[in-house]
Design brief:
Blueprint: H1 6-20, E1 43-47, H2 50-53, H3 66-71, H4 89-103, E2 107-111, H5 114-117, H6 127-142, E3 146-152, H7 168-184, E4 190-195, H8 197-205, H9 218-242, E5 248-253, E6 258-260, H10 265-278, H11 283-288, H12 293-299, H13 310-314, E7 320-324, E8 329-333, E9 341-343, H14 364-376, E10 381-386, H15 402-420, E11 425-431, E12 450-453, E13 458-461, H16 463-474
Parallel strand pairs: 1-2, 1-11, 2-3, 3-4, 4-5, 5-7, 6-8, 7-10, 10-11
Antiparallel strand pairs: 8-9, 12-13
């Protein structure tokens, strides 16, 4: 593989700019083209989550979760859909492993259902739940696929008193995460604590569009956020205490990503500052071990109540940071703004995919890893989710999702720039292996590279699966 330093990258991008400005091929002929190869050993994978694919909600001792209750509440999910069956992966996990193997991926990110292990969130473990995940892990390893396991992907056991409003839930999560790390770390060497703090805190307790569907006052939302980051820190400590040597622990965070509207110093600096400030309650607190003064001042009396020692727990050292990145927000420097920057609104006709929130901005897969690296210097980075929804009509047994290929090709080209410039990206997990229960959107938006017929549970590879398979085989953007 050819490698490039930042100066060479700049030359090549400068050549493209010169052409766009009316230059000639001759004027730019000396600029070597950038190959789109990835380093040997770069990890390609797919991602899923337990409640979105497993089904079998009443089998083998699984306890109810807040998403079972929420999805069965009329009007909360489009078409009143629920995850009772979903993709039936609880029974079809071996078939799904075959999908992974056919793609040629080396890794698979999955989550555990907390309530399969502790039906009431704590207490005596349910051996049938442990046995199931032992079988899933063993099946992956037998097929040469390395599991990356997320301990919590939103499906909180409903029996926990007060749920995330109760500080005790953070301790219950630490106990569960430590227990399962001890059960699996002889074979699983990579764990993520929680998935997307902002979603299960804010969307569930501020906006009410996700489980448990609450719209709490600001002080209560901030306390839920604090319990979320505390749960992450407690889990890191408990997992370290129970894991076998060589285990790597990180987090999967949907950090709010800011992108400079123009690639000039003032806008680059403004966007970097915006990422630190606008993630003050989540990744910034985890990586810096404190809440920013600006955040505490802004929240005033609504700021979270922090007990002595909490921030040291929250800042427990990580082996990697994993980022779920889909869409950017553009930032411009604004010396007249109190923070020195302005986040630009997405306009009505901004390009987007099938999901209304999924604005297209491929460069976010460059700036996200770059800024997280520059701000906090993690040992390693992964893209733990990236992908898109599409209409995905199936015609004559085929799904020719060229729009998804367009999206992925452009995003992975931007990610390649981050790798080529030396930021510590080690792997990429495409969301998602297959269509699944898309939370409040039910089954209306399809994110998979395999089409799922929910009536028959037949999985059909989409054109994007063939594209991703070719990319993996070549280890380069195609």
């Amino acid at each position: 593989m050819t490698t490039y330093n930042r100066r060479e990258i700049g030359k090549a991008f400068g050549a493209a700019t010169a052409l766009a400005a009316g230059g000639t091929i001759a004027a730019t002929a000396k600029a070597a083209p950038i190959d789109l190869d990835f380093p040997q050993g770069f990890k390609w994978g797919c991602a899923t989550a337990a409640y979105q694919i497993e089904g079998a909600v009443n089998e083998d001792g699984r306890g109810p979760t807040i998403w079972d209750i929420f999805s069965h509440t009329p009007g909360k999910v489009i078409n009143n859909a629920n995850g009772d069956v979903a993709c039936d992966s609880y029974h079809l996990y071996a078939e799904d492993t075959k999908l992974l193997k056919n793609l040629g991926v080396s890794t698979y990110r999955l989550s555990l259902a907390w309530s399969r292990i502790f039906p009431e969130g704590k207490g005596k473990p349910n051996q049938k739940g442990v046995d199931h995940y032992n079988k899933v892990v063993d099946n992956l390893l037998e097929n040469g696929i390395t599991p990356y396991v997320t301990m919590f992907h939103w499906d909180l056991p409903a029996a926990l008193p007060g749920e995330w409003q109760n500080r005790d839930t953070a301790y219950a999560f630490g106990d569960y995460a430590g227990y399962m790390a001890g059960q699996l770390s002889d074979r699983v060497k990579n764990f993520m604590t929680v998935n997307e703090l902002r979603c299960f805190t804010d969307l569930g307790h501020q906006n009410g569009v996700h489980a448990p569907g609450l719209k709490l006052p600001a002080a209560d939302v901030n306390q839920v956020r604090h319990h979320g980051v505390l749960a992450h820190g407690l889990a890191v400590q408990a997992m370290r205490a129970h894991c076998k040597p060589g285990t790597q622990i990180g987090i999967a965070d949907n950090t709010t990503m800011r992108v400079p509207v123009i690639e000039t110093k003032e806008h680059i600096d403004a966007a970097r500052k915006a990422i630190r400030e606008d993630n003050a309650m989540f990744l910034t607190a985890i990586m810096e071990g404190k809440y920013l003064d600006s955040y505490l001042t802004e929240q005033g009396a609504a700021a979270p109540k922090v007990k002595q020692g909490d921030m040291a727990v929250i800042a427990s050292p990580l082996d990697f940071v994993a980022l779920n990145i889909y869409t950017p927000d553009y930032v411009r420097a604004d010396p007249n703004s109190p923070k020195g920057y302005q986040v630009l609104p997405h306009l009505e006709h901004s390009p987007r995919m099938a999901s209304p929130w999924l604005y297209v901005g491929p460069e976010v897969l460059y700036w996200g890893p770059r800024y997280v690296s520059e701000l906090w210097g993690p040992k390693a980075l992964y893209i733990s989710e990236n992908g898109c929804s599409s209409d995905d009509p199936i015609v004559a047994g085929r799904v020719d999702d060229s729009d998804r290929i367009m999206y992925l090709r452009n995003y992975l080209t931007a990610m390649h720039r981050a790798v080529a410039e030396g930021y510590p990206l080690k792997g990429y997990f495409l969301w998602s292996l297959m269509d699944n229960f898309e939370w409040a959107d039910g089954y209306t938006n399809r994110f998979g590279i395999h089409y799922v017929d929910y009536a028959t549970q037949k999985r059909t590879p989409k054109l994007s699966a063939a594209w991703y398979k070719e990319l993996i085989a070549r280890n380069r953007v195609v």
